[in-house]
Design brief:
- The N and C termini lie far apart (44 Å).
- The chain is an alpha+beta fold.
- Helix content is 46%, strand content 14%.
- It has a two-stranded antiparallel ribbon with strand order 1-2. It has a two-stranded antiparallel ribbon with strand order 3-4.
- It has two domains: 81 residues, no CATH class; 62 residues, no CATH class.
Length: 199
């Protein structure tokens, strides 16, 4: 909304996203009667960075929720120092970061946020889909062939061959054989492609 801080705008968007879903308490924070409790954003006053010691406007700091999640405060480090610190940590913990990213993709919070941001900017995700199709035409062709075969009744979706979960996905061992698939649930499909998640 006009005249709001970036942290206020992001919190407004977050508060409007899927507020009727009780599982989104992890996203929206404390709730009462199915609605998020009002959270007061930090004041728009200059702040000194604890790292570079420079006094910068509040927009140069990320907004953080407090431990009780009942209010928002500005980060101690400015955006530049935070990014620098994050890159330094990521360069030393590449394996740990990769595992965390893969695990995050399987959470309801990640899927809810992805649906929210898709609704806010669908053209961006359409461009990503076109770029993926350009880089991996064989994958898109195989996925389309499976979908069409299921619609025609030539292929039947089976439970996961590992755990028996009826909600399964088609896995291709060879993309040159689009109808030759194995059925795996989301968890075991990801475990097959990213075995380091089990580390």
């Amino acid at each position: 909304m006009p005249g709001e801080l970036p942290c206020q705008q992001s919190w407004t968007v977050c508060s409007l996203s899927l507020s009727q879903n009780r599982s989104n308490q992890r996203i929206l924070g404390p709730m009462k009667n199915g609605r998020p409790i009002q959270v007061h954003p930090p004041k728009a006053s200059p702040k000194q960075c604890a790292c570079c010691k420079e006094v910068k406007p509040s927009r140069e700091f990320y907004a953080r929720r407090t431990k009780g999640r009942s209010s928002i405060r500005l980060s101690s480090y400015c955006r530049f120092c935070t990014s620098k610190k994050t890159r330094k940590w990521a360069s030393k913990h590449k394996d740990q970061l990769a595992i965390a990213r893969r695990n995050l993709r399987s959470t309801e919070r990640f899927r809810a946020n992805r649906r929210l941001f898709y609704s806010l900017d669908p053209e961006k995700y359409k461009r990503h889909a076109l770029e993926f199709a350009r880089r991996h035409p064989e994958k898109v062709k195989a996925k389309t062939a499976v979908r069409d075969a299921i619609k025609r009744g030539e292929l039947t979706r089976l439970p996961c061959e590992v755990c028996g979960n009826p909600v399964s996905e088609a896995h291709h061992d060879d993309y040159s054989k689009p109808i030759d698939v194995r059925w795996l649930c989301v968890k075991h499909h990801n475990d097959h492609h990213y075995p380091f998640r089990k580390i």
